[in-house]
Amino acid sequence: MPRLFRRRPALATLSVTCAGALGLGLAVPASAGPRHDPEPDPVTASLAAVPEVQGPIAETDESYLWSTMERAREPFDVADRGYVEEEYFLSGTANVYDNAGGELEVVTEDVPYVNNILVRRPAKKSDSSGVVLVDILNASNGFPGEDHWRRMWDWAMAEGHTVIGVTSKPIQVDALKNFDAERYEELTWDVEDVDREPIVADPSDPASFNPFMVVPGAEEGLAWDIFTQVGTLLDSKDGRAVLGGQKAKTVLLMGQSQSGVYLNTYATNFHEAVTEANRGPVFDGYLNTVGAVIERPLRQAETDGFVTVPGSEPALDVPFITVTSEGDAGLFGARTLAAKDLPENRRHWQVPGTPHTDLLSPVIPADEEIYKAGRLPNTQVHDPAFRESLNLYPIEPAVIAAADALVSWSKKNQEAAPSQWFDQADGALVRDSSGNVTGGVRYGLIEHPLGQYLGAAKPGAVYGSDELMTAEEFAAAYGTREDYLALIAEVDAAQVEAGYLTEWGAEYFQGVASTLLDRIGVPAA
Description:
By secondary structure, the chain is of the alpha/beta class. 28% of the residues lie in helices and 17% in strands. Residues 1-35 have low confidence and may be disordered.
């Protein structure tokens, strides 16, 4: 079993510039190297730097943070759950890297940046678990998408975890400037002085907007040092200001879909260098949700901003779990999901029946907020017929179980449950007599199916569909609603014991099953 590093001692305070009562001392340039190395090389200096902090950024009726839960699709106040929701700006310098020769090299050194992070944490220090979940916000819709928050918000708050979202791409910065030009004026990922207006999607011509487009004058390759410097901040004394005085005991870096590809790229190319620069890991584990095993180039160069290359999945000194949906086979190709030998600290949990994304999450920003950001919401979800057609088989319980397993693996050296792979034949997923994919992590809802669960409604779709059995077929196969719920609960209890599910997830499955039974028309007792 590879040795797991302990978190390094907290760095001495480098800089904090905070509004209100958070002034903690004199500012020192964020590009300053670590104190144990008076003349670090450019890579080490940037990977060990701690950014300056401004915030929490003031909230008013006219100026509020992007993606606040008070303006979600189903609004709520996090204070009702004992939480606070805050925004901070981080500033420093980041390098632009390349690895064309197989080694990490600096192409452009010390590019100034200003970026934002969203922080949701327990209001009281005593309620904090010490677990910090750092999410690389997804840019696939052109705005900062909180995809992991969408999947685990309820569970995270119940556990007392802190969730931090990091804006990860220039196209997202453009959306924030559309959303509130004055609030987000300082944000920049620019490497050139280009006179332009933020990019705005045209609602009358949706196809004209490409969320993967390159933003003129900006550089996507600043992301790697920005991610690292969020980690060094949390591992420094200044990190407690962002966390309301709480200590980050376990810090995971997460990414979903496109951000999962970023996560793969970061772990392969930067984890070892970051660990060496900081005398220990900055992140205690990695969680990739529906991001397959592919990576992207380290810099924009002459690409269209998102070009994938095969993932290498090297051995790391911290755990890494990838959770894969059935829908990913249509996006990335089933062959990219094929079983293979993995290093000891890596796991793949593949979950049959699940779509790539959840279009019905209640915490997605309301449509008017997305329009305000110059982006386009998914309006199909307002059509009752479309909502009724969606596959509700959830991947959320597996994602939450993986996060829980990573925390235990990091803190207690308790290894996560083994990898589980889809069955494949000739590069295609194998299906049983019900039309469901075989193999993978199997919960009660698929061991005792209520019909066929398709991970993709059509090839390449990110959402799924299902074909449920009739009430008569259900009665013949399972009897009553109570019989069925007890049947899947037995399977799920075994998966809790095996480590592929939490008690929270088992209860969640009961709720999903009840909704599907309602769709079928199975009467309650």
